[in-house]
Structures are given as structure tokens and as C-alpha cells.
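Researcher: Hi, I'm a grad student and pretty new to this. My advisor asked me to get structures for two proteins we've been looking at. I'm not sure of the right format, so I'll just paste the first sequence and hope you can take it from there.
Model: That works fine. Here's the first sequence with its C-alpha cells right after it:
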Amino acid sequence: MRLAAADAVLTAALSPPRAYGAPAADAVMRAAPEDFVVDEDLGFAPAGAGAHLLLKVRKTDANTPWVARELARLAGCRPHDVGYAGLKDRRAVAIQWFSVPRPRPPLDLEAARGAGFEVLEAHAHRRKLPRGALAANRFTVRLRARDGDGARLAGRLGPRLAAIASRGVPNYFGPQRFGRAGANLAAPAHELARLPATERGLRLSAARSVVFNALLAARVDDGSWERLLEGDLAGLDGRGSIFPVDAPDETLAARCARLEIHPTGPLWGAGEPRTRAGVLGLERRIGAEFAAQCALCATAGMIQERRSLRLRVAELAWEAEPSAVVLRFRLTRGSFATAVLRELADAAPDAADD
């Protein structure tokens, strides 16, 4: 990869433009795991019967695959048989659901624990928990004031938080998706076939995500990340339904302003995006600039899909503590808390979230 192209890829992955300008404040994030709490909302209840167990687990400063392996050891099954909806931050307190096949002979896994995790609940369920099987994540994040004055920090962040509650944030994939220093973007196409399936999936996901980030960055630069253009494909908030925008009108503009619908961007695959007019022209240009990543996705058999350009930050609330500000908010699955936090403060979290 030529140096200029490599720089463009890393910029799109790790340092895309902010929508609200410079961060409103400087703050300390994740001084302790308890400063970042994420709680999965599956969106459904355990079945109460079946060949699997759903386990509600609290993990602290531990990564998801490691906890899955420990649960496999306790349940006497293969690590591959453990299900979880998504990766969660390591340097955090994460309340997360896992599934394991029901052990034979039966074992009481409720209250089981290990280094960095404990099982809070165990429920019978019909099937393995698949990736992506959750509705949302709820976050409680503590931003610590560098000068020790939480009230002053709240004063600086308040107007920005109010704007985010009203307008949302660009729905970037977080730097976690790309690995440390963009390492997940480094594998040449001819090496992918030799990688284990999990690592191959990470590389393909990173390639697709960086193209999306680059497109979103272009629309942040021109201000259209939060409004519909002729030729857009609009998406319903929190749902997979999309529809074409022949010509934006007052009704669509009002729905967009209420965060009911959003413009979408490409998750690259074979063929061309289904957008039209100037939107298609922009997406073609970004696709050409990131030709290697687009080709990787198409060759792997991925299809063209869409992702919202804008992320609604639901139930956003904040309060000052003597030396910090505590934020609470809810994000739909597949979105990143980093997209919210990078619009607020200079310091950025360094772990993975959904």
C-alpha cells in the first residue's frame, strides 16, 4: 500500500472529523474499570426451557473471549459451544449474557465465578445465543475532571451534551474495530485465506468499516451527515428498514430532525450501492479511493448493505459529582460509545464496545 493511501486509510479508521468541532473539555476516562459500565439489553426474555443455559455475567477488567473460555471449562463444553451477542470492553464493568449447553450431569452455574467475572443469573433457554442477538447497550460513564472540579466540567460539557441529545452523533465505527494502530487493516488480500476464520472475519470487518467511516467523514465535512439528500437511502431509527429518497421534502426533513429517520452509508460488498444522483457519485468516489478494501469485501462474497450515518443517543442524562461528570445513555446494537465520547472530551477510551 502506498504511503499516501495508507495514511488515508488510518485517518478514516482512527481520526475521522468530529461533527461538533473541537472537544468541549479535557477529561480523564477509565481511570478505573468502574468508570465505564455497560449493560446489555437482549430485548427478549429467557425461554425458561431448552437445551442451553443463558448466563447473565458481570465481568470486570476481563475480555469477552477469555470469559467465554472460562465458562466453557466450568460447563464442560467446547469454547466454540459458548454463545455471546458481542464483544464488550475489557477495561470496564460489563454486564453481559452468555449461553452454554446445559451440562450433564446438571450443574448449578448461578453464582459461579472466576478471576474477573461472576455469574449473576442462569436460565434455561432453547438455543445458543448468536452474535448480534441484542437490542441495545446501556452505558454509565464517569468523566473525571483533571482539575478536580466536577461542576466546572459539567458546565463545559452541558451545551455539547444538549446538542448531542437533540441531534445525535456521527455513527462511526470505533477505533477498536481496527485493532491497535490499525493492525486489523494490515493483512494483504492474498494472506486472508491462510488466517483462522475468526481473524479473517476481523480483517474483513475492518476493511468494510473503514470504507463506511471514510464516506461518513466526507458527509461530516459537508454537513450532510444529519440531513437527507436526493438519491439517499434513508433508514428508520433502530431498525433495518430502508427506503429511497427521490427528493427530500418538508415531511422527510421534519422526521429527520426528530431523529426518526437517518441517511445511510454503504457497508461495502459486490456490485454498487443502490443510491442515486450525487450520493451515488460520492459513494463511487470513496469506493475508488479505498479500492483495495472494497475489492476485499466483494471477493469475500459480502453484499451491499447499509448503516445509519447518524446515531441517536437515547435516554441521555448527566449529573455532576464533586470531581467528575457521570453520563448515562442507551445505544442500539452495533454502535460505539466512542462515537459519543469523542465529541465531548479529548481523552478517548481504548477498549472495545458494541
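Researcher: Oh nice, that was easy. Here's the second one.
Model: And its structure:
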Amino acid sequence: MAPESNITKIQELVYEMNVGEVMHKDVITVSPQTSMSEFGDILHDKRISGTPVVDDQGKLVGIISLEDFIKWLAGHQPDCPIDQKMTRDVQTLYADEPLIQAANRFEQLGFGRFAVIDRQNKSLLGIITKGDIIEGLLKKLEIGYHEEEIRRYRASHIFEDIVGDKTKLFFQYDVAGHDFKRAGESASRLKTTLKRLGLNPQIVRRVAIATYEAEMNVIIYTYGGKIRVRVDPHEISVEVEDSGPGIPDVEKVLQPGYSTAPEWVRDLGFGAGMGLDNIRKCASRMELKSTVGKGTQLSICISIEDGAESETN
């Protein structure tokens, strides 16, 4: 089974980079005690359409917008602190979230911007917009272009030391369940290894994205598992095994958008239900087996010949 389409460099980077790398940190903020009249002056002087509201410890407590100010002004209401008019239920992103999560949230909610906070203390770290994502990706592409020749040189020297009629390489990664701080770490380490081996960038992208999605499923739904990777001259095999609760209906979970992720996982920006579908799009072959109460085994095979000659991005 051939992959549905080539994975572009941009698609690779949104899995590799995180929100903190592209957000802008120089954010104008106001305190809950700032008056609405003062807020009007800030809107005028700074030429902004809204701003986060933070307390004395730097923790995000709300958002106040130009629309909120206009409603207050049109109602001829007496002056009051911002905390009486601000929106308290704020949609946020974490700085350490993969950029793909931010892109998904922009698409799902249709927002123009998100406040970015620290996962531990919830303090405001920055703001991210769609424009920030595009600018960050373009900068990363430019840096990557200049580093490409160095990587190719290193890869050629690695293979000078490998001699044999048949060569296979094996790698194993341990994944801890519910450890969102290290989400994507195994996939990132594998991608770095494959790049150093000089494999085609298109193949590396497909392996990295498929492994990332599989790793996230282990983190979200299980108490942990292992990712075993075999690289031979014709194929890369990724075997993912966990001892989680198992999947009652395998066919259902293969449907795009279907997810059993609990609400607290969705609040973290994960569990959109596209993981297995994304894996299938990257894989030459994919097989999913699961036993309720025992665990799940996912096999992903990516042929090195599949689409390798079409690397143009």
C-alpha cells in the first residue's frame, strides 16, 4: 500500500517544533484592577485590539478585547475595573505543546490568537497567532537549508564504516504513560538518528510523523509501552506495544475523528482522534491488533522505495 501523498518539509516541522518556539513573548498586558477608561487609552496608544489580563504573579486570569470596551462605552456605564468586563474562560495553549496541536486548535475553533501559558504554574508566557506559526516555520526552513549539506557530509562518513552484505539496525524507545512533558521525545530521537544515517528526507518525515502519533497514543491511553524500530535496506518497521486497557472496537478507532480521550486530555490539546488516520497516510502498510485487558500492538511499515524519488519539498 503506497502512502496517500508526500509529506512536505512544512508538515514535518509542525510535528517537530513547539508553540514556545514561534510565539511572540513581548506581550502588552493589563491587571484586573486596571480601569476600563485606562484600558481605552491603552488600546489607542498601543494600536491593539485586546490584551491578556494577568495578576500580580503573572498568572493569566482573563482576556479583555476592543469589543468589550465598545460594549462598555456604548452602555454609558460607570467606570469599573477590567475584571468586571473581561472574559474569564480563556482558551490557551502550553508553550511545550507540539506546533501541530496549535494548528489543529486554530482550525477547530477559528480563533485569531491564543494566549500561551506555562504548564506548571499557568503564568502567561506569550501570544501565538497564525502569522507567528507561518513566520516561525519559514525561519526554521531557512536554517534547515544551511544545515542540510553538513548533515549529508556526516551521513556519508557514517556509512563508510558499515560493511556487510546484509545490514539491519535496531532501536528501542521506552514510553511512559501520561508523561506529556516528554511527548514526542522518542519520535524526535528516532528522526535525528534516521537523518544522520542519510535516509531520504521524505522517508524520514513519514517515519517521524507516524512514530509521533503512535507515541502519543501510548502516552494518552496507556500506562506505558515500547517502540521498536528496525531499519534495513528496503524498509523501516516500527512496532509499538503497550500493556494498556486494549481497544474493544478496532474498526471504530480507525475512523478519522473518532476519539475516546477523556476531557482532561483534550484540555491539554491532545486526543483529536486523527492519530491512526495520520499513521495510515504515512505508512506503506499498517496493522493494528488489540486485546481488551491485555494491550495493543501496532505495526507500521514504510518502504524506503515508496515515493523516495519524488522528494521535491
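Researcher: Is there anything I should tell my advisor about the second?
Model: You could mention this: Residues 152-165, 308-313 have pLDDT under 50 and may be disordered.
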